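wait is this the right file?? whatever heres the structure
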């Protein structure tokens, strides 16, 4: 009986001890250029999707009309383009040095999102911990959060001139 308890305790503590040693000897990737751990991306994405599941299907309380899309483009230029880029332009110096990298969200870049607008709204409002994606709940109003989310959700079907208004 005593022996089985000892084996159980050793079985539980040994992996914890190894994980602690791994961190202490510098095994955890901390530099943005370090290769990710196996499963690191999977764990981060799974945690994120579990957290925002309840909000994903929220419909926007604003219409995707020209006024809101233009305002969304203006908000994007001021707050987001430094990381998520401009149309027909390469990654910014900041974006090149980040891990995970900020997707380049404007066409023709391949980071254009097909997420539902409620999911984008959640990410812009709350940010994504440990990634460099800031939460904007203290700096943009609720209306502005929806306007920039609508802009990203419709970035492939904008009224003429709106995409072109996003420039450095
Ligand atoms: C300082 C850099 C930075 C700024 C500024 C920034 N973001 Fe991000 N953003 C990121 C990073 C990094 C990610 C990737 C996070 C990940 O991989 O989970 C991200 C992810 C996202 C995503 C998820 C994309 C996807 O396909 O999963 C959306 C949407 C987004 N940002 C929108 C915005 C909006 C809108 C703004 C401005 C209001 C903004 N971001 C400002 C760095 C930034």
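ok assuming it is, sequence goes like this
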């Amino acid at each position: 009986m005593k022996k089985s308890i000892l084996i159980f305790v050793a079985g539980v503590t040994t992996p914890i001890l190894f994980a602690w040693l791994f961190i202490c000897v510098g095994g955890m990737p901390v530099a943005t250029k370090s290769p990710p751990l196996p499963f690191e991306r999977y764990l981060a994405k799974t945690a994120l999707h579990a957290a925002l599941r309840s909000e994903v299907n929220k419909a926007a309380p604003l219409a995707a009309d020209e006024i809101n899309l233009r305002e969304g483009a203006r908000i994007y230029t001021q707050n987001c383009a430094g990381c998520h880029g401009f149309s027909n332009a390469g990654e910014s110096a900041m974006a090149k040095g980040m891990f995970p990298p900020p997707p380049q969200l404007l066409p023709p870049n391949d980071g254009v999102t097909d997420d539902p607008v409620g999911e984008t709204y959640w990410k812009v409002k709350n940010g994504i911990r440990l990634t460099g994606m800031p939460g904007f709940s203290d700096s943009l109003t609720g209306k502005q959060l929806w306007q920039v989310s609508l802009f990203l959700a419709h970035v492939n079907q904008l009224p003429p001139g709106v995409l072109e208004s996003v420039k450095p």
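The chain has a mean pLDDT of 92. so i think its the right one actually
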